[in-house]
Structure formats: structure tokens, C-alpha cells
Amino acid sequence: MLPASDESPRMFHSDLLDFFSRTPWWTVPLLWLPGSSAFFGVGLARGLGLLHSTLALAAGLLLWTLTEYSLHRSVFHWIPSAPWGERFHFLVHGVHHQWHWDRFRLVMPPAVSLGLCVVFGLLFRLVFGPVWMWPTFAGFVLGYCIYDCTHFALHHLKRDWRWFLRLRAHHMSHHHNPRYKELRFGVSTTLWDRVFGTMEPR
């Protein structure tokens, strides 16, 4: 059990809820790398060739990056005008901005990500059909895995790789520079910030 500490403050009165609000970063690749591989394998087993499956995987990965950007820009920064609005925002994303140093609240808890996997999986089946959905969803899930691991690394990994420092500066400006509070929503890539004009203040 991961207890509350100065690094990871208590969020809930319930010990059970508070326990499940903390997630070590390594649970993400442990759960979703095999998951992505399994989804890719189902597509191959259903008759898709390796080339088509790989192209679908790449499309799913690109689709994840757009989803990551869109969710961060809209849902994560949305504060509903309702009595529960502030609480909703805090639980979804505000906690991360308030306690950005908390290494146990940087990735999504498995209970939440598994539920979302079912929802997105059903959506992919509707859009891509019962065969093409599998490698495309594999790429989407792989993209999510890369995103969550990258997010953790940007906050806690110390490396002097040029590309990493650029991406880290991009994300940290969103956190710590008031000019970029509603800009620079991409985490694993800056692509969509460039496409949609959210790199720099106008």
C-alpha cells in the first residue's frame, strides 16, 4: 500500500479510495504493452496481413496523439458551471497541476484506464469494424502507454537528450508559466499544438 506523504498528499477520506488514487508509473507498460500486442495479434489472426496491420497500428498511434491533445485541451481544463464543477476538475486534472511533484498521481489508475479501454474499444469497433479495429486500437493503446510514461519522465527523469529537454520545456511551460496555462496541451508530442496554433500566445 502506498500511504499518504508530503510527496503524495491524501486526496480522499476513504483509505480505499485514497489507495487506488495512487499508481506507480510501471503499471502502465506492465498492463498496456501486452494489451497492445494482444490487440495487434487478434488483427493478424483475423486475416489482416502484416503490412496492413502495421499501417493501421501507425494510424491508431497518430489518432491517440490527437485524442491526447483534444482531451487535455477540452475535458481536462473544463470546469463545469455546477456545484460539483470545481471538484470534477480537481479530480480529473487539477490535482496534477496542484501536486505536480506527486510521482504516484502522474499516470491513470488501472481501474479507470480499463473502463476507458472498454468504451474506446466499442467506439473503435463501430468506426473501424470488427477486423480493422484491432490493429488500429493496438496503436491507440500503444500511444496511450507512451503518453503516460512520457508524462512521468518529463516530471521525474533527468536526462540531457536534446529532444527530451525540448519536450520537457514545452510541458513545464504549461505548468509553471501563466502565459501558457491555456496553451501547449501536447505531452508526448508538440504536433497538434503546432497544427492548432496553441504553441505561443497570440
Which keywords apply here?
single chain, about 200 residues, mainly alpha
Strands, helices and their partners?
Blueprint: H1 15-20, H2 27-45, H3 50-73, H4 85-98, H5 110-156, H6 162-176, H7 191-196
Helix pairs in contact: 2-5, 3-5
Rg, Å, rounded: 18 Å
Count of DSSP H/I helices: 7
Q: Average pLDDT value?
A: 86
- Percentage beta strand: under 5%
Description of the structure:
The model has no long low-confidence stretch (mean pLDDT 86). This protein is globular. The chain starts with 14 loop residues before the first helix and ends in a 6-residue tail after the last helix. It has a domain at 23-92 and 109-154. It has 202 residues and is mainly alpha-helical. The protein has helices spanning 15-20, 27-45, 50-73, 85-98, 110-156, 162-176, 191-196. Helix 2 (27-45) packs across helix 5 (110-156) and helix 3 packs across helix 5 (110-156).
Describe the structure concisely for a colleague:
By secondary structure, this protein is mainly alpha-helical. The protein has helices at residues 15-20, 27-45, 50-73, 85-98, 110-156, 162-176, 191-196.
